[in-house]
UniProtKB/TrEMBL annotation:
Stretches of the chain forming a coiled coil according to its record: none
Listed GO MF terms: phenol 2-monooxygenase activity
Name of one Pfam family that matches: Phenol_monoox
Transmembrane segments: none
EC number: 1.14.13.7
InterPro entries assigned to the protein according to its UniProt record, in alphabetical order: Phenol_hydroxylase, Phenol_hydroxylase_sf
Protein name: Phenol hydroxylase subunit P4
Organism from which the protein derives: Thauera sinica
């Protein structure tokens, strides 16, 4: 159905990066681990090193999964924009090309709790 505006409509997105005070939203999902119904959302400083994100908030968020104790971050296979991605753990999220509302996925060969049930 067509909509006709009565006056000029100027849409202002309220979730753009300017509204996050130097932080950005980053989504992460762990392939084959559907204990989490959706991607995990983190609000992180843009200059946070990738390794700090992994060892801090991301490790805490995936901790409830039974496979998390066996998770070796050095063996994780990363995906960004549905393409293989090799992050530099010492560089910032921005330097790794991770922007506002980007999603990263990770796969852990040998740790597939979803497949154990199937």
């Amino acid at each position: 159905m067509a909509v006709t505006a009565l006056k000029e409509y100027i849409g202002v997105p309220r979730d753009s990066i300017e509204h996050f005070g130097g932080k950005q939203i980053v989504y992460a999902s762990w392939d084959h681990h559907l204990l989490f119904a959706s991607s995990l959302m983190m609000c992180l400083p843009i200059d946070m090193p990738f390794g700090e994100m992994v060892n801090g908030p991301l490790t805490a968020l995936v901790a409830p999964d039974p496979d998390s104790a066996a998770l070796d971050w050095k063996k994780v296979e990363w995906m960004k924009d549905n393409k293989p991605f090799t992050p530099d753990f010492s560089k910032s999220l921005a330097e790794n090309g991770i922007g506002h509302k980007d999603q990263i996925r990770f796969h852990t060969p040998g740790l597939n709790s979803l497949l154990k049930v199937a």
